[in-house]
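Lab notebook, bench 4. The sequencing result for the construct came back, and we need a structural model before the next group meeting so we can plan mutations. Quick request posted to the team channel:

Model the 3D structure of this chain.
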Amino acid sequence: MTDEQDSKPEHPTPMRRPGERLPAKPEGGKTPGVMADVAALAGGLKTTLSEFFRPPVTLEYPEDKSPRSERYRGRHYLRRYDNGLERCIGCELCAAACPVGCILVIAAENTDEKRVSPGERYAKTYEINMLRCIFCGYCEDACPVQAIVLGPEYELSDTSREKFIYTKEKLLEPLPPDVEARLASKPASAPHPNPLPEGERGKTLS
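Done. Here's the predicted structure in token form:
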């Protein structure tokens, strides 16, 4: 074993394919000089500097955000009337029109003591599974009172699956400031004034 190791040359010749030759040397036997390196560097800087003086085409997200189109379908919202009443009347047409079944609506009856919407019923429970939603907009088209709309918000990431179940409290628009102040000054059992705003009558399902 020792004799075989001693018989091997210290720097063996690399193996090559049959007929393969050594790479050709530069013409004249000279390596590229400094001027060639400078010319290559100038060519690269030319491209860099030409892009540097052009107006930027990217945005510094999230500080700057591109505007959404008017028909963009993003996060869902449940709307209210100007007097604070909820538009949703619990008809469940949005849930029936949803092709993936991501909407759950459970309706309840309105009363004179507790009026939530101008119709006979209101949505006691309204939930949307945002992980299943495909943002097709069928729920918005099916709603007879324009209660559910898809807004321009598209930043919907979160940290757990449970947080993607949007409840009614999360979907519902806040009360107008004047309505909130008026309701805060009255007893909780007082009926809501003006059940249906003028101009909106006849637009809801009984």
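The two ends are 101 Å apart (CA to CA).
Will bring this to the meeting.
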